[in-house]
Structure formats: C-alpha cells, structure tokens
Automatic annotation (TrEMBL), chain A:
Domain of life the protein comes from: Bacteria
Protein name stated in the entry: Putative ABC transport system ATP-binding protein
InterPro entries, A to Z: AAA+_ATPase, ABC_transporter-like_ATP-bd, ABC_transpr_LolD-like, P-loop_NTPase
Keywords: ATP-binding, Nucleotide-binding
TrEMBL record, chain B:
Pfam families reported for this sequence: PadR, Vir_act_alpha_C
TM annotation in the entry: none
Organism, as annotated: Conexibacter arvalis
Residues annotated as domain Transcription regulator PadR C-terminal: 90-171
Sorted UniProt keywords: DNA-binding
GO MF annotation, one: DNA binding
Positions of the Transcription regulator PadR N-terminal domain: 7-78
Protein name from the UniProt record: DNA-binding PadR family transcriptional regulator
Listed InterPro entries: Tscrpt_reg_PadR_C, Tscrpt_reg_PadR_N, WH-like_DNA-bd_sf, WH_DNA-bd_sf
Top-rank taxon, per record: Bacteria
Length: 243, 185
C-alpha cells in the first residue's frame, strides 16, 4: 500500500511557563492510499495535537510531515480559506453560524472558493447522498440529531473529494448503531479507494472497522507489529535507553 | 469455568472430530486465551464422564473418531448455562509485578508495559474485520449465534482496550516515580 500521509520523527512539546509537556516524542507512521487508520488514546494523550499536525494546521517542533511525498508545511503549498492544504478534509462537528441555512448550502460552502454556486450545490447533494444523508438537504442544523449532524459533517468534509479525511473523535456522543453507521461509511469510502482516513477514538470497540489501530500515550505511538518498519524499531530502541 | 463447557457446547451444536473441533473452538471463541491444545484433554474428560460418546467413522477413506453429545451431556450443559457464573478474578502477572516492584525495577517494568501493549495491539489487529456488518446485525432475521459472536468480539476488544489503558496508566506513574527519584537523588 503506497504511503499517502507520512509522519517521520515528529516531536511536539506544549510549554506553559517553566512547565514543558512532551506531547509527541519522535512519532513516525504512515497512512496508505485507501487505508482507514485509527489512533486510540486517553483524554489528553495528544490525539488532537497529532491530528492537527497531520492536517498541516500546526507545525511540529521537529520532524517531517508529507502528503503524497510533498512537505505539508512547505511554503508555496496552496491552502484553502479554512487553512487546510489541498487534498485534506477535516470533519468538524459544528454547524453553520446562520441557523436557518439549509444543509445543502452548508455542505456546499467549502466549494464556493473555487466552484460556481450551482455546481457546488450539485456536488453537495452528491456528498450528502454518499453520507446516507440525502434526505437532509433542506433540513436546518438545530433540527438534526447528533447522528445526523455527524453525517452532514462527513458530507461537508468530503465534498471536495479529499485524498485524506481527518476526524477527531467522530463518533463521540453517538449510540452503538449510529457509531457503526459512521464507521461503516468511512470503511466503505476507503475500501472503494476513494480516499484514506485517519481518525482518533477514545474507545477501542469502535475501531473494528479500521484497517489499522495504533495507540498513543505519553508521547509514544505504537502500532501493530506487522506495520512497524526498521526505522520505528530503531526509534523504540533509542527511547528505551532514555526511558 | 473450563474449556470443558466450551467443548461440550461445540459438540452439542454439531458433532465433530478432534481437529475440526479445535478449528471451530478458535473460530467461535478466538478471543478466549485458552490453549487450543486444551480441547483434546477436555474431550477425553467429557467422554469419561459420559457427556459425549465416540463414533468411529471410516467413510471417505478417513479413520477419524467423531464425538457427539449424549442426553446426559446436553442436560449437564443446560444446567451449567442456567447457573450464575463467578466473577473473573484479575490475575494478570503484570498486576502482581507492579504491586511488588521497587523503584529500581521500574525501568524494566516500563519496557514490559510496552511489550504487553504491543501484544494487545497485535491481538486487536487479528480481531479486526471479524465483526459482522452492522446492517447484518440490525436484520430481524439474524440468528442469535451471529449476535452472540459479535458481542464476544466487542467484549474481547473492550477488554484489550482496558488493558492498554491500564498499562499506559502504569507506565505514566512509573515514569513519574523515576523522575521523582532522580530529582530527589
């Protein structure tokens, strides 16, 4: 599976006064083309920090992040109004500021930067259909259930057909059935090779649909043995010596 | 609780021979860390107690011994199924090690928590994808066996998740203890 997203030796420390908290310590992994990967970790484990760095929204203190072989933070890389580089979609679970906005227009918004209104609405309709939320085109955000909001958010995050979808705890607050639907949709989208996905989750039973599960704690990322590369093993050995 | 009841359950579902039962044991109860080699001794014990009977089968040029449940076996299994089970004790080796470790041991134990976490992740890696489709489970015609199987898988993963969290928690605490020790020294 060729790598789409690669993180290599990524470090990040949060500083507050004299206090330093190492959130990511030489984290290396990749997400393959068409792969659905999940990162499991407790609250405060650094999952969101890792995801923001993977999205190119924050810079690491050290290390390299590449999307499709190109440095994510390279100057001159084209960015959207929402700060995301081309090729990346970010699932955001908040609604429009205008509460009366129909969901079709809400989903179409990220396209308006570059696509005419009529075409943006057509693509938004298709994205809602793909997210099994075709019936919600005329609905307003306050009318939606939590599960419906996630489906709309998924449509909005994928409306530009990104190569990589990132989602920070996309199933929070959903019931078992709704979680299965959302994760099933992500798996389906990646299996059909339309995109790759990297999500974070606080509970493992939710990630049975993922192709790969990694864990994050104390700045260390661990992944299943079959995924580890020689580099990872070297990093792990370094870390052992320094405890 | 022993492997005996699980093997009896398999034989009641349908008769089988040794190797086939070992395979079915793994397929149906893969998450259970009981040894596969425990299936044969369990069959012998069940036979000795009269819960299963042997039937030699030399058809298809194969000489295998089939095991099938007796009426006694079926009624014993029903009785066991309806008896309240005991709560599983926490008897993981790691708990005992952490409980009795001194600060000098912590660096070794930190590494052991990483190895254990790796084993959990590898186990999850093998379980992934074995879960029935959610649509399938929502189907009113789906039989209880498929639902039970899905529950077993979820429970196993939940258990692994709890173990990973406990290991990460222990690692954080041990790292902090080492730091305290170093700054005090």
């Amino acid at each position: 599976m060729p790598a789409l997203l690669s993180l290599d030796g990524v470090c990040k420390t949060h500083r507050r006064g004299r206090h330093a908290n190492v959130v990511l310590d030489r984290v290396s992994f990749h997400v393959g083309v068409g792969e659905f990967a999940a990162i499991f970790g407790r609250r405060g484990a650094g999952k969101t920090t890792l995801l923001r760095i993977a999205a190119g929204l924050d810079a690491p203190d050290a290390g390299r992040v590449t999307l499709d072989g190109r440095d994510l933070l390279a100057t001159g890389r084209r960015r959207r109004l929402d700060g995301l580089p081309d090729g990346i979609g970010w699932l955001v679970r908040s609604g429009p500021l205008t509460r009366s906005m129909p969901m079709l227009d809400f989903v179409a918004m990220p396209l308006l930067e570059r696509v005419p209104h009529r075409e943006a609405r057509r693509r938004a309709g298709a994205a809602l259909e793909r997210a099994t939320a075709g019936a919600l085109v005329d609905a307003r955000w306050p009318e939606l259930s939590d599960a419906e909001r996630v489906l709309v958010a998924l449509a909005r995050a994928t409306v530009r057909r990104p190569a990589l979808l990132l989602a920070d705890d996309p199933t929070a607050g959903l019931g078992t059935r709704e979680r299965e639907i959302v994760l099933g949709l992500l798996r389906e989208a990646t299996d059909e090779n339309e995109m790759s996905a990297l999500i974070t989750v606080p509970a493992l039973p939710d990630v049975l649909r993922a192709h790969r599960v990694m864990s994050l704690s104390g700045g260390e990322l661990m992944e299943p043995t079959r995924q580890r590369t020689g580099d990872h093993l070297v990093v792990a050995a370094d870390r052992r010596e320094s405890v | 609780m022993s492997v005996k009841q699980a093997v009896l359950g398999l034989v009641i579902e349908r008769p089988g021979y040794g190797y086939e039962l070992v395979q079915r044991f793994e397929e149906r109860l893969g998450g259970w860390r009981a040894s596969k080699t425990a299936v044969y001794p369990a069959l012998l014990r069940l036979h000795a107690s009269g819960a299963v009977q042997r039937r030699a089968d030399s058809s298809a040029h194969r000489n295998v011994t089939w095991y099938e449940a007796t009426d006694q076996g079926r009624s014993e299994f029903r009785a066991w199924l309806r008896t309240a089970p005991e709560l599983m004790p926490m008897r993981d080796e790691m708990y005992v090690k952490i409980a009795f470790a001194t600060v000098d041991d912590l660096a070794f134990l930190i590494e052991q928590t990483r190895q254990q976490e790796q084993l959990c992740l590898d186990r999850i890696d093998r379980l992934r994808g074995a879960s029935p489709e959610s649509d399938q489970l929502a189907n009113p015609d789906v039989d209880w066996r498929a639902i039970g199987q899905a529950w077993l898988l979820r429970t196993e993963v939940a258990h692994l998740a709890t173990t990973i969290e406990a290991l990460q928690d222990a690692r954080d605490l041990m790292k902090a203890a080492i730091c305290r020790e170093r700054s005090a020294g």
